[in-house]
Specification:
The complex is a heterodimer of chains A (442) and B (607). Chain A has 442 residues and is an alpha+beta fold. Chain A contains nine helices and 19 strands. In chain A, the strands form four sheets. In chain A, strands 3, 4, 5, 13, 14, 15, 16, 17, 18 and 19 form a ten-stranded antiparallel β-sheet that branches. In chain A, helix 3 crosses helix 7 and helix 8 packs antiparallel against helix 9. Chain A is globular and about 90 Å long. Chain B has a two-stranded antiparallel ribbon. A two-stranded antiparallel sheet of chain B has the order 3-4. The longest helix of chain B is centred in the last third of the chain and has 37 residues. The two termini of chain B are 37 Å apart. Classes of the chains: A alpha+beta (442), B mainly alpha (607). Chains A and B meet through helix 4, helix 5, helix 6, helix 8 and strand 15 of A and helix 19, helix 20, helix 21 and helix 22 of B.
Chain lengths: 442, 607
Amino acid sequence: MSKTAARPSTNITAARLPAPRTTVARKVGPVRQCLAVAASLRLTVVLMALSIVLVFLGTLAQVDQGIFTVLHRYFRAGIAWIPFQVFVRFGQVFFGVSKETEWHGAFPFPGGWLLGGLLLANLLAAHLVRFRMTWKRSGILLIHGGLVVMMLGELVTGLFAVESKMTLAIGETVGFVDVTGKVELAFIDSSDGKNDHVTVIPGSLLREGSIIQNEKLPVDVDVVEVASNSELAGPLTESQASRPDVYETTDGALYAVVKLSEASGVDPNQREDAPLVRVTFKKKGTQQSVGSYLFTLWFYPNFFLRQLPFAPQQVAVDGKTYTVALRPQRIYKPYEVKLLDFKHGIFPGTDIAKDYTSTVQLTDPLQHEDRDVKIYMNNPLRYAGDTLYQSGFFPDDGGSVLQVVRNPGWEMPYVSCAMVSVGMLIHFGIHLLGFLRRQVRS
Amino acid sequence: MIAWSRFVPWIVLFLFGAFVGVVAAPPSDTAKMQLYEFGKIPVQESGRIKPVDTLARTTLMVISNRQTFKDTKDTEQPAIKWLLDVMVSNLQSREDAAINYKVFRIENIQVLDLLGLKQRPGSWRYSISEMAGKFKEFDTAVRQALDVNEKKRDLYETKLLELRKHIDEYMKLMERLEPHIVPPSTADGTWQSLSEIDERARVLALGRMKAEAEKKKIDLLKQPQDQLLGQFHDELQKARQEISPEAQSLVEILDYYQTGKADQFNQAVADYLARVGENPACDMTRTSLEAFFNHFEPFYWSTVFYVMVFFLAVVGLLLSVGWNAGAQPLCQAAFWLAAFTMVLHTFALCTRMYLQGRPPVTNLYSAAVWISWGCVGLGLTLERIYANGIGNIVAAVPGFLSMFLAHHLAGSGDTLQMMQAVLDTNFWLATHVTVVTFGYVATVVAGFIGVLYVLLGVLTPALNRDMAKVLAQMTYGVLCFATLLSFTGTVLGGIWADQSWGRFWGWDPKENGALIIVLWNALTLHARWAGIIKQRGMAVLSIVGIMVTGWSFIGTNQLGVGLHAYGFNNTLAMVLVVTWGICLALIVLGMLPMRWWLSRTTLTGLK
């Protein structure tokens, strides 16, 4: 039986090769020739290799940088500048390279947008050149179609998805969300008595050394210092209270604000970064200082799940008092959510969480929506284009944090997964059947 | 072929079957204390009900890095005996056996110096009584280490605190603060330790004695001490019985053990087990099964058998002349033994699933066990299709290596531990995790066939064109399978993430690792279709696939751990680096010019 297997049978790999390139080149003009190059499988292989390297480097980079930073510098970038230090990190983790070693400098590498775009172009060109609608190729078509959907899905997500959080104490009703990874400096004028008038400076404008002037702002803002992360040290003892940047909570405990480097993407215990900004407010159009302030997300009650109450920071200008706060970018929603109850179960004898469930009341007066919903792990609430997931809870179980995601492309990976899986089953199935038939025959 | 050789597979199967029967049978020597029966007693720890045998094994594993220990006569004894001896010992009496058991594994020279202990290479195990003289110095050093920020501790400080934790564990057992062995009377009640019960019983007993004395107008302090103690002992027993009859029985069992009354011990244990069998808080079916599972160690025996399969398969291949190895009796024996072992392996996996009430993959350990199972399944399938003896080796080697890795991943502690709520969805565990690990399996198996191609070609003259073609076909087929599974599994993971927190793909290290595997498999296939690589290129690229899988499976985790762990002191990172080294060597070997290959004459014309 094994003897016959030696008979030169149809070469399974040759069958799948494109028509020899020379025949294409002989018959057609330069446009088609370029298309043939763009469509070549060799290009595919090179692009895939580059993608693998990029993903690998983007993983190593997370030793030093947060996941969002890496996302924007590597995967959602045209060109990624890769610091040599990532190789040192690799050596430190696996090959015992000294912890002090540092390599400076960086080199350019094609980023995610570029590679993704080129792969997409290569794929489309390949199908343009070699399109044939046969049973044998239907699997390939489905697979590649699915991949196109997936890449477009990632594009839509990268461009339009918004991740945010809604923090609710039991009994509280909230109609806005805190966007993850984006901050704003808000000036709140409550003098009207009925409504708050809020003016915000987006976080992207808060750059060290810049001066922000705008007619809607009550003051000119001179940005002295910006840090991407900070922590609270404390509670401090009396003797430590002379440290710089010490703030008192409303319960009288003292904490110092300390600059910190960005949380690493590979840290198993990472928390969200708490940016910090130090500013000097000046009377509009003058150099006259109204006061220097340090703002950090730690002062924003939702950030630390209402654990440390700091009094709001206030600025008085021209007889008016404004409350100023650094807070996550806030988006108001057409609906409101009230947390009716929160339950948190643990496995007996441990502190491992078993389940957590938020019971909320969803109201949307415009849509005449008013219902009670249970939100728990893997059972989100989808409403008005948003999806609300159970995400966290207060340490005393007195409240809950919901992750609110708005992603117009969320269904695309589902479609893609189905297309590619079915495609692979068809494609490999056809070949497996053919192969088994040959085995049986021989 | 000699006629009787047809029976070789059956003889091998029979021998191994009989062997399994022997190791599986629970020990039943009525003259001695039946520690195995005692081991079935349920306790509650880390959020689940388990037999006390599991607790003894995992605790000893943490302290000693082994599941057995050597008693003072240097005889190997089971963990449950250690637990019992600890529970009936105390630090004051020097004669107690437990404090002289050398079970604490201390490898750090500085810690040993601090405790005034000599280095004991090979064993590195020490007893409480050996350390007792230096407890004061130890305490001071521990306090200093605790003052250092967790992330800044050096190796010595980390190891010191580790030892302290181990000693704490030991003390808790000795003082009976653990385990939580006294069951509640209702299904959702709280489990208590013997010490907690005794605390309450003591208060109750003392109160009663005082009340009694007041009634009879006796001054307790003037009573003879013996009489007083005897009275207290009786009152304590009564009080304990009232609070929890189970606790009273357990104390009696321990007393029988301490005084060496084997018959009473066995009877008391049997009575106790019958009693808790009706308790709604205990699930005796599961607990007994788990005790049996611990005793039987089917995963361990599967690992051993895969080694046997490998030897049978290799000898069979060597003895087979030409290319008809599939029919060689030893190869057939290897095939059937592998199939038999896989049944054992499957039984073990199913038991695990039943005990935990979860799909097979819940942590790295179980993933490795699952990968091993997949490798064997894939190897046996290939052997069924090609019948060339190679499939057996494909089953045995990765199957064994992965089990071996699992054994190390189990490290210390309970491999059946409870899972965070984030993972609390059997549906996604069952689909994403199992599929994606099978994707890893196929990638590794394809790489392993590549390894065979290179080794046979370069180091032996045996690789001819037919065989090369068959190996290449096998690699190709398995790679297609790998691409399908790793892609589907990865995307299912994304869907799970989308269901849980609304982010289909987050570019985190673990996700990136999975993506690299998918991309690598796709790259290999496209390179083959493009004609950039032929047989040999595919073999070499598939070996890179092993490196890539190692990176995804182990490496990505190490990035986070490696930074905060103490330097280059990590077994898993070592395993990975060694694997990479071997793979690289094989890749270099595979890329040697054809004229240096020993199979060059039989392979002429191939690139």
